[in-house]
TrEMBL record:
Main location: membrane
Protein name (database record): MFS transporter
TM regions (residue ranges): 18-35, 50-72, 84-106, 112-133, 145-169, 181-201, 247-270, 282-303, 315-333, 339-362, 374-394, 406-425
A single GO cellular-component term on record: membrane
Record's keyword terms, sorted: Membrane, Transmembrane, Transmembrane helix, Transport
Length: 447
């Protein structure tokens, strides 16, 4: 009994230290990653006029970003895996930070489009490698919460950056306009964070200097046991298996829907709020932070609850259902009551955040083995594909109709399809691991 209690104590200490020393660093990386991706939405309030960008051209910039993000997703993720966590995270953070900073100096439409494509190249692979890294260093029982904490960085970045970006737009620094100062002051921290990763991020559990010998041995043994189990439960052994696995494509479509909602919140929300309310820059920033607050609450609640009950599927379905209901209500109310439509949109963001907090924990549970990084990259590619078509389409529709009205209906329709896809995933998998039988979603046995 004493030995068992000692083992539990070691487990708790290791998990606490991993959250403090690893999850916190990944959180900060994702925090600056999200800021450098999303600050274009606020810069557009001034930049579009300064560079003569129409909504359609602005949409094409986001589309080209996503295209590059897709094309370089898998090769970048594989390169990062080979480099190791410390060097990989350092290089990619410095790369996107420098490119984002350079956006302040684009002179016209052409170089704006080139810059957005370059930023997509620089950011590609980070997300998939982050998921892979978490699956390789965190015990299985806390991966859901670790992913949730990491993804909360996205709404937190918007909560912080929204009022900050709104304020920066009103400040001319030296000979620079507000939108130019915004890119510089929000891009440089990513470079500094990348350099810190060389010292702070352990490549493997064996490199975790913040653990003592006993804790390190426990973590290595725990992860080795999980790896041995995955070899007998249909783990993905190579990239070909990942590419032809229907679960990868089904999860990819669910992520497609989730990314569509996040892109709308990140890129188009400030313009939508400005059009509906006519508020100033600072007020737009404050209002823009509200959806991200509800998003972060949903992300943490769903991630923690899925760890406690060892059930990744049910919280995901509930979250997607809440988001679907919220988007439908928001779309239906937008003509009659702007306030109630916005409240319904906040409810939808709560559900969308919950889905984000659980999705990758479920993917890590379903897709294990040597080719897991490739599978995560493919899911990310499919999911991020929404940006290639959605942003130009949204911009074009806005230019022709003068409204973002159809956008919320589109989100509602996609979430209905995602809910149906999750139902298929539940029926397509049968439990073959008694410990995880509650979710009914386990990999098929190797054939």
């Amino acid at each position: 009994m004493k030995q068992s209690e000692s083992g539990v104590d070691i487990q708790k200490r290791v998990e606490r230290k991993l959250m403090l020393h690893v999850a916190s660093i990944v959180f900060l990386l994702y925090f600056f990653f999200a800021i450098d991706r999303g600050n274009i939405g606020f810069a557009a309030l001034q930049m579009n006029d300064a560079l003569g960008l129409s909504a359609e051209v602005f949409g094409w910039g986001s589309g080209l970003f996503t295209l590059a993000y897709l094309l370089f997703q898998a090769p970048n993720a594989e390169l990062l895996r080979r480099l190791g966590a410390s060097r990989g995270f350092a290089i990619i953070a410095c790369a996107w930070g420098l490119v984002s900073t350079s956006t302040a100096f684009v002179p016209d439409q052409f170089w704006f489009l080139v810059n957005r494509f370059a930023l997509g190249m620089a950011e590609a692979g980070f997300h998939a490698f982050m998921i892979y890294y978490i699956s390789r260093i965190f015990p299985k029982r806390v991966r859901g919460y670790a992913v949730g904490v990491s993804f909360v960085a996205v709404p937190c970045s918007m909560i912080v950056a929204s009022p900050l970006s709104g304020a920066l737009l009103d400040v001319d620094w030296a000979s620079l306009h507000g939108w130019q100062s915004l890119f510089i002051l929000e891009g440089v921290p990513s470079v500094l964070m990348g350099l810190l990763c060389l010292k702070l991020i352990p490549d493997t559990p064996a490199d975790a200097k913040f653990l003592n010998d006993e804790e390190r041995a426990w973590l290595i043994g725990e992860l080795s046991q999980v790896a041995d189990q995955s070899e007998h439960t249909g783990a993905l052994r190579n990239i070909r298996e990942a590419a032809f696995n229907p679960m990868v494509w089904a999860l990819g479509f669910v992520l497609f829907t989730m990314v569509l909602a996040i892109n709308v919140m990140t890129i188009w929300m400030p313009l939508m709020i400005r059009q509906v309310s006519g508020a100033g820059n600072l007020a737009v920033g404050a209002l823009n932070s509200l959806p991200w607050i509800t998003f972060s609450i949903g992300c943490l609640i769903a991630g923690r609850s899925s760890d406690k009950v060892k059930d990744r599927a049910t919280p995901l379905r509930i979250s997607v259902a809440i988001a679907t209901f919220g988007f439908f209500c928001s779309a239906a109310l937008q003509e009659s009551s702007t306030a109630f439509a916005f409240a319904a949109f906040l409810l939808a963001c709560l559900g969308a955040g919950g889905a984000q907090g659980v999705f990758w924990a479920l993917a890590m549970q379903l897709l294990e083995g040597r080719a897991a990084a490739a599978a995560f990259a493919m899911i990310t590619v499919v999911g991020s594909g929404s940006g290639v078509f959605a942003h130009p389409l949204i911009g074009s529709l806005h230019d022709s109709t003068g409204s973002f009205g159809g956008l919320v209906w589109t989100l509602a329709a996609f979430y209905i399809a995602a809910l149906a896809t999750l139902h298929w995933i539940s029926r397509a998998r049968t439990p073959n691991n008694p410990d995880d039988a509650s979710n009914g979603l386990q990999p098929d046995a190797a054939k």
